[in-house]
Amino acid sequence: MNYDLEIAAALAANPALTRPPPPPPPGISEIAHGRQLANVTFAPFVKWYSERLPDASQYIVSDKLVSVEGGEIIVRYVRPVGEDGGTFPVLVWLHGGGWMRGSIDMDDAHLRTISVELNIAVVNVDYRLAPEHRFPVAIEDSYAAVKWVVEHASELKLDLTKGFLVGGDSAGANMSAAITLKAREDPLFAANPLTGQYLREPAVVHPGAALPEQYKEQIRSFSEFTSTPILNTENMLRFIDVYAPSPPTAADDVRVSPLLANSHAGLPPAFIQVQELDPLRDEGILYENVLRQAGGSTKLIQYPGCFHAFHYCFPAITAAIQLDCDAREGIKWLLTQSPGGRIAGTV
Question: Which of 9, 74, 221, 257 lies 20 to 30 A from 150 at CA?
Answer without folding.
Answer: 257
